[in-house]
Amino acid sequence: GGRPLTGRLALYLLALRAACQPPDLGAKSPPLARLKYALEEDWTGSQQHGHPLTNYYQYSLGVLALCVHRRHVREELIRRLLAAERHDRFGHGDGHAVDTEAVAGLAFACLHQARLAHGVLASELHEAVRSVARKLLQAQGPDDLIGNVFSTPLALQFFIATNSCESEPEYSRARDALLQSLDNFTNPMAISQLLPALYGRSYLDIASMNCQGERGTLQPISPVTQPTELGNIIVGLVVECPKRLCHHHVLYNQSVTVPAGSSLLDVLEVASKQGHHAFTFKTQDSLYGPFLTTVMKVEAKWQERRSWHLLSAPNTSLQMGIADYKPHDGETLILRLSKW
Ligand code: B12
Ligand SMILES: *[C@@H]1O[C@H](CO)[C@@H](O)[C@H](O)[C@H]1NC(C)=O
Ligand SMILES: *[C@@H]1O[C@H](CO)[C@@H](O)[C@H](O)[C@H]1NC(C)=O
Ligand SMILES: *[C@@H]1O[C@H](CO)[C@@H](O)[C@H](O)[C@H]1NC(C)=O
């Protein structure tokens, strides 16, 4: 079987509530019931493998969505998330721990504020909220961002939800840094995490939304067309695979000529059509756009927790995916099969 759809169902349910739609509208299998089931599957997986079948980000989103809909969440499911937070299990690769820390914090804050937990559990949730706040503040860098530019909106949502914005000067510094970096937000999924924070709101506010007069607030906007850049650029493309898994460590190493302003995806496409050293790749659609799954016929299996990691030489991890990242002239990009 595939992975449970915990994250997608959670986002769908949050969106329904935010759009003032009842959650079970004429559905044959109601999304709330499906989310509960997906979360149970993730929980069972975490018992067996030490981590959810999806990831703790989606597990947290699932708990949060049930809480926003004021549905009961089993104590054991909450305890698993509390334990993961306490033992710093949210990290996978660079920068990603902050996103998960923030969403787990939103889930803890929701459960605590909605009084969906009592006794010892309630005080553990309270302690967890404080622990998340501490870790997020520790993750603030010299650029004032919390984690990176794309995790900062979720971190701000957490501080908004817990009413700690005024008391934390770090919050305004992070918000100001974010306001200086709005150009980075071109990906619709990233924008969807940013917008609530810019309006001083968090996913928790969805629960108490006033659903009167919510018609016709969505206005289409015409997209801004980027000026076309002139000329060509040359970028290096290197594919690396650990010796244990592949015959050769370097599976591909060529330069590729593309029009200026091309994305990394464009580079991969041109490489796949050029010369006799044929480059091959496959992607899978995700809410963030195309996710690189297979390179030179080597598939990164999620069951083995492997992925194709994108880097700029010598070893700077990219903060965007293949469709959004635009390489510059002379840059070398590395696709490296890694564990997370
Ligand atoms: C977990 C996670 C991962 C895991 C995903 C595997 C897994 N099964 O869990 C791993 C570690 C493999 C990963 C990889 C990458 N990630 Co990531 N990831 C996340 C995280 C924390 C949660 C994603 C999720 O589950 N979403 C919820 C579900 C419902 O959405 P979904 O679309 O169905 O989920 C899938 C995709 O999101 C996909 N995915 C994960 N990351 C990325 C990044 C991109 C660009 C794409 C297209 C897809 C993708 O994996 C999810 C699970 O299958 C987010 C945090 C966030 N704020 O969103 C960052 C995040 C989305 N990742 C990010 C980045 C940059 C990457 C990488 C490009 C890093 C790199 N230098 O290689 C790579 C992707 C490279 C590739 N092969 O195409 C950025 C994207 C920023 C942006 N504006 O584009 C985020 C926001 C983190 C951050 N703050 O920087 N990621
Ligand atoms: C974000 O924006 C800043 C300033 O506009 C820029 O210098 C930086 O490279 C951008 N970061 C990413 C990941 O695109
Ligand atoms: C790729 O090839 C260039 C020369 O063609 C070489 O200088 C470079 O070291 C190679 N990179 C790797 C990772 O093998
Ligand atoms: C990049 O490589 C250098 C030297 O090999 C190392 O010191 C540094 O920690 C690496 N950085 C990252 C982000 O891996």
Care to describe what's here?
With 340 residues, the protein is α+β, with helices and mostly antiparallel strands. The protein has 2 domains: 6-208, Glycosyltransferase (Alpha/alpha barrel), CATH 1.50.10.20; 232-339, Beta Complex (Ferric Hydroxamate Uptake Protein, Chain A, domain 1), CATH 2.170.130.30. It is 40% helix and 15% strand. The protein contains 10 helices and 8 strands. It has helices at residues 6-18, 31-49, 56-68, 75-86, 96-113, 119-138, 152-161, 169-179, 188-198, 264-273; strands at residues 232-240, 250-259, 281-286, 289-295, 298-299, 306-312, 316-317, 332-339. The strands form 2 sheets. It has a 5-stranded mixed beta sheet, with helices on one face. The chain has a 3-stranded antiparallel beta sheet with strand order 3-4-5, with no helix packed on it. It is globular, with a radius of gyration of 22 Å. The two termini are 21 Å apart. 34% of the residues are buried. The mean pLDDT is 92. Bound molecules: cobalamin and 2-acetamido-2-deoxy-beta-D-glucopyranose (3 copies). One 2-acetamido-2-deoxy-beta-D-glucopyranose is lined by residues 238, 250, 253.
List keywords for this structure.
Glycosyltransferase; alpha+beta; transport; 340 residues; metal-binding; signal; five-stranded mixed β-sheet; Transcobalamin-2; binds cobalamin; globular; three-stranded antiparallel β-sheet
CATH topology of the largest domain: Glycosyltransferase
Report the total helices: 10
Level-1 CATH class name of the largest domain? Mainly Alpha
Q: Separation of termini?
A: 21 Å
Total strand segments: 8
Instruction: Point out poorly predicted stretches.
Output: none
* Average residue pLDDT: 92
What coarse outline follows from CA principal-axis ratios?
globular
| Strand line-up across the major sheet | 2-1-8-6-7
Q: What structural class should be given to the helix and strand makeup?
A: alpha+beta
The portion of residues forming beta strands comes to 15-25%
The CATH architecture of the largest domain comes to Alpha/alpha barrel
What share of the residues lie within helices?
40-55%
Domains counted in the coordinates: how many? 2
The ligands found in this model are: cobalamin, 2-acetamido-2-deoxy-beta-D-glucopyranose
Give the C-alpha Rg.
22 Å
Can you summarize the main beta sheet? 5 strands, mixed
